[in-house]
Structure formats: structure tokens, C-alpha cells
Amino acid sequence: MSEKRIHNFNAGPAALPLPVLQEIQESFLNFKGSGMSITEVSHRSKWFDDVINDAIARIRRLLKLDDTYQVLFLQGGASLQFAMIPMNCLTDSDSADYVNTGTWATKAIQEAQLLEKNIKVVASSEDRGFCYIPENIAYSPKAAYVHITSNNTIKGTQWPVYPDVKGGPLVADMSSDFMSRPFDVKPFGLIYAGAQKNIGPAGVCVVIIRDDMLKRTPKNIPTMLKYTTHASKNSMYNTPPCFGVYTIQLVMKWLEETIGGLENMDAINRKKAKCLYDVMDKSRFYQGTADLSSRSLMNVTFRLPSEDLEKQFVQEALANDFGGLKGHRSVGGCRASIYNATTLASVQTLADFMITFERKNG
Amino acid sequence: MSEKRIHNFNAGPAALPLPVLQEIQESFLNFKGSGMSITEVSHRSKWFDDVINDAIARIRRLLKLDDTYQVLFLQGGASLQFAMIPMNCLTDSDSADYVNTGTWATKAIQEAQLLEKNIKVVASSEDRGFCYIPENIAYSPKAAYVHITSNNTIKGTQWPVYPDVKGGPLVADMSSDFMSRPFDVKPFGLIYAGAQKNIGPAGVCVVIIRDDMLKRTPKNIPTMLKYTTHASKNSMYNTPPCFGVYTIQLVMKWLEETIGGLENMDAINRKKAKCLYDVMDKSRFYQGTADLSSRSLMNVTFRLPSEDLEKQFVQEALANDFGGLKGHRSVGGCRASIYNATTLASVQTLADFMITFERKNG
């Protein structure tokens, strides 16, 4: 295994742990002695049963979930959740609160509005281009739920701590920081995360849903859009995205057995982020785009003195085997996504490259 | 590569061509020199653009699609299509025809009914346990579309030729025989196929949709459930199931370059099916469950003289490296699924095994 590998700073799909990729590769023609690829075994077989149940058990342990929560593997990404959440959890007589912290939160809001649901945008950071997480928010006492986006990939902001909303349950899009740090699950009624950033390949969305939220599903919405459909069948009402679930299982195993859990993962992730933010804070060449108190530990966004320099930076980085440093096409600039699988060594190498680049061009 | 491999007769997820699995395995840590796995490259990268566009181009060539058709890669399987089709293509003032040929057609019908759409079941083979494809059907002259299920995995039946419905466009669930034979696409307004039987892993559904069907999408349905959303973004409105699309690309390449197109594939598939049906037709031990004129070329379903013998057959088969021969849990009996990737050699070996088993136990 001496394959050339780059330093992968992609925003998603993103880096996966090398030992996980190696295990997939090694067993790809003959999974666990089945004589079949994991892509060829039946989802009703003991092989796949072991995979999905182990994936669920590991997620439960890592997040310390009690029996009131179920773990589901769905399709359609976070984008389909934007619709499923109000369709399942918001009756016509109720209203839900939404906090707008950027592109993905905006999409969640627009989808609820498209479906003619009663929602209230209780706070927004749009006034300053979504560069911060709002504080001191007046949540509605009777909100059916409060929807937040835990980390904002495009603008590089993240909730440092989750808000105490008093009333309704929290519902969170954790696509881009799921499993990156420990947190208290109790205030959450529903958590969802597209896998392709921190825990697996594109094509699976993990949904963690509490019993009380499952009781809200109305009868007349499409079967595949009901959380109850999937909860009652252990995510196998229809054929699940087996390869994605398998990859998630291996990533959870890596998190538990190699990293040693979410506290350790968090400590590593903080070191990685500090490494890059320190370069920026000591420099007038690199300018962070997020307010200090709202900085993301997952997506480090920054600008250079000119767009030409940004272009040159991304190109030279690529030539030095740093991939994915171009900012999102909607905002420009630069972005280093440093999800769980991006190593501290890769981040340190990038920090050195940034310092050298500034020295030559600053 | 001397991995142990079995004869895979799974109904889905099912066998994939060995050269495809080998190519995935070999490039899994470094896709096309990117220094990343295919699961780690961005869906907005040139690497993935090449993958998805080549997959589409090959599907277009194999099916001889003209410019009025678009090829989409969606999530949620055929089960989500059961809802999307009436939601997108059937207004409240129109009615659609459905032909009920078994479990999956029944689910499509029930989903349209759940959504309170006007549909008419114009024919059904339920009277004899779905063991045949109805003939001489009186289709509604003004049907918005006519929905059929081209192949029925559970009961082992298949439309030998597609019906001339005169009025509205055909809509077909081709999940279990897509790309197994050539056919004239012109009468079809929409074709859908879960990948996990003939063309790829679980987690992608191919949808082929004609321009006139795209014009029917109403405004107030969820964004992710609109065909127009995906058609206008080349299936990249949100992150697509990249690994699945990549596998489909390789299977399409295998179909074009190794097999030589759908005519050749059809000839091979007919030989495979004949091989097993010949054993059954020369035997009083193995009894086919489908009417002769409706027999599937993909799923060969049969019974043995007793349930005990069926159990013994499946067990001895497994001990001899034949996997997946147990019938669907809803009907019992035996089933050999012989999709594109199951080789003629595997099928011939199974035929020999069946003859030997009969000799010993008949």
C-alpha cells in the first residue's frame, strides 16, 4: 500500500480515515468470508444485519443515547430532511422556531415555507453576511421545535455551545460537525447529518430521533418520508444504502477503538483548528471571515489580500498536494475543512505552507 | 486476486461484474491519480464530473435515448418513486392507470392511493397469486400515464413485450430488469430502476424522464421530490450518492465494452434462463411457479415437492457455494436471480447441481 495520497481539505465529500479505506479495499471481493463484496450481500443477510446493528450500537455508545432515541439511516441527504422535519413534526396548528445562520439554515427555512408550514425565524446573522452565531435569542415558549444548524460549512461558523431554548425540543442539522465533539443529547428531539463530511460517503443521512417526535407523524404523507416507516423497520423498510452504512460502521469503530471516543476526537480537532487560526491571528495576510467567538472547528474560512493571491494560493497548494482549499463557489476566498479524518500532521503541514506562502507573497 | 467467490443468485443487492469490483478495489485509495478515494473526491470536482457524465452518456447510448430524455440519479430507491411519480405527474383533475402484477406494483398503487390521487387498477393477476402478466387490457384513453412493473422479482414474472396502451405514456418500474435487454424507449414517459439488481449497489435509483413529463411538476411539493430540481442540476442539486454513480458508470462500461451492448446481454440472459427452465421442464421434481408465457428471464422461481426438501436444497446449495436461492420470505420456495452479472458458467453449474440433487432426492 504505497499509494500516493494527498492532504485532503475537501468540504464534503471529504477525507475518510485511511485505515477505514484500507479495510474496505482489502475485503472488497470477499466480505467476512461470504464470497461476495459488501455491495453484493443481501440487506436481509446476517452479514448486513451485523453491519447495521454494530453501526447503530457504536453511535449509541459514542453519543450516550438512552432508549428513547432511535438511530436511522436514510437517503436524500440533509436536503430531504429540510422537508421531512416539518412534514413529520409540525402540525398545521403549531409553529416552529428557526435560527438562520447561513446557506443551509436558509434552505431549511425556505423548505418549511414552501410546504406552507407556520415557522418563525427567531434570529438571523444575515445582517453581517452570516459571520457569527446569534446570541440572546427570544425563543417562542410554545415552539413545536427549534431548528438550528450546528456548524456552517460555507461561512465557517459553529455554535460554541448549544442554546437553552426552554420550551420545545432542539432539532439540529449536524451534517458538518456530527461526531466531532461530545455534547449532551437530552435537549434534542431530532439530530440529522449527511454522512459525507465526518462519518462516511455521500448517500446516507443519519437521523437520531426521540420517541416523542416519532409520535407526531401524520398519516397522509409519503411512506418513505415518514420517520415511523424507517423506525419500525430498523431502517430496512426498503433496501438501505448498504455500502454507506458499512463505511459508517467502520468509521464509528475507528472513532471508538483508534481515537478513543468523542472527548479525544474533540481534543484533536481543537488542536487542528488552533494550528490554523494561530497562523491567521499572527498574520495580516490571512484574514479570518468568522467572528472569533463563532469560529468553526471544522471549516476554517479566510481571505487573502486579493483574489489573485487567493487563486495563486489555491494553485500552489494543489501543486504541493493540499486539496480542497478553494472557498465555496457562492462566497469565494479560501477554506480548509478539517473534519475528523483530516490528520493533525496534514494540518500542521498546511500551516507551514501558509507561513511560507505569506513570506514569499506577503 | 485469488479471493474465494461464490455463485451469487441474490435477488438484490445482487452480483456485480467481477472486473468492476476489481477496478473499484484497485483504485480505492487513489482514484485516477487524485490522491483520494472515489468516496473522498468532491462531487463538484472534474473527477466526479467525468464519472457522472460518462455514466449518463453510456446509458444514453445503450438505450438509444434521444434529446427528449434526461437521465437522473436519485436516492430513496423505487419506493420513493412510488410517491414521486403521482406527486409530479398526476394532477388532481387527471387519472392514471396501474397494472397490478405483484408486490411492488401493489406498493406503487397503495402509495398513489395514500396520496389521494385518482388512479384506476385496469388489470391484476392477483386472482392466481400473480403468476402471470395480464393480457388484453382495456387502458383508459385519457390516462395521464399507465404504470407497469416490467419484472416481478418475487413471483418470477416479466412482461415479454411491453403493451401498446394507445393513450398516455408508459411509466415503468424496471428495477429488476433494467439494462437486461434492448427495448424501444419511445412509448415511455418515465422509467425508474433501483440500481441494486442489475446495474450497481443499493442507494441509487436511475430515473429516465421525458421532457413532457418534466413539465407536469407542481410548485408546492418538497424540493427534493421534484424531478425538475434534479433535472435542472444534472442530479447535483445536493450531494449525489457518488460511490453508487461511480459503480453504475463502471457497470455501463462493462456492458458496452466487455459484453458489447444490450442485444448481446439479452442473448446471454436468455441462455442463462433457458438453462434453468430446461431443468424444470424436464423434471416433475422442480415446479416453476410462473405461467410459461410470463416467465421472468431474471428471477427463476420454483418449488420442490416439500418444504423440507426446499430447506435441504437451499442448505446443500449453500454448502456448494450457491448463495441466495431461498425464495422471498413472503412466498417461500426457491428462487435463482440471474441478473446481468451472474455468469452463464455459474448458471450451468447450478443446473448441474439441481439435476444431481433431484437424482439423489427425487
Blueprint (SSEs and pairs):
Two copies of one chain form a homodimer.
Chain A: E1 7-8, H1 18-26, H2 46-63, E2 69-74, H3 77-89, E3 96-100, H4 103-114, E4 119-124, E5 146-149, E6 151-152, E7 157-158, E8 170-173, E9 188-194, E10 205-210, H5 211-214, H6 227-231, H7 242-259, H8 262-281, E11 287-288, E12 299-303, H9 307-319, E13 322-323, E14 334-337, H10 344-361
Parallel strand pairs in A: 1-13, 3-4, 3-5, 5-8, 8-9
Antiparallel strand pairs in A: 2-10, 6-7, 9-10, 11-12, 12-14
Helix pairs in contact in A: 1-7, 2-7, 3-4, 8-10
Lateral arrangement of strands in the main beta sheet of chain A:
2-10-9-8-5-3-4
* Rg measurement of chain A, Å: 21 Å
Calculate the terminal CA-CA distance of chain A, rounded to whole Å.
39 Å
Domains counted in the coordinates of chain A: how many? 2
Would you give the CATH topology of the largest domain in chain A?
Answer: Aspartate Aminotransferase, domain 2
CATH homology-level superfamily of the largest domain in chain A: Type I PLP-dependent aspartate aminotransferase-like (Major domain)
Q: Return the string of H and E elements of chain A.
A: EHHEHEHEEEEEEEHHHHEEHEEH
How many H/I helices of chain A? Answer: 10
The fraction of residues assigned to DSSP E strands of chain A is 15-25%
The interface involving the most residues is between: A-B, 70 and 70 residues
The first-level CATH class name of the largest domain in chain A: Alpha Beta
Give the second-level CATH assignment, the architecture of the largest domain in chain A: 3-Layer(aba) Sandwich
Uncertain ranges of chain A: none
- Mean of residue pLDDT values of chain A: 97
Structural class designation of chain A: alpha/beta
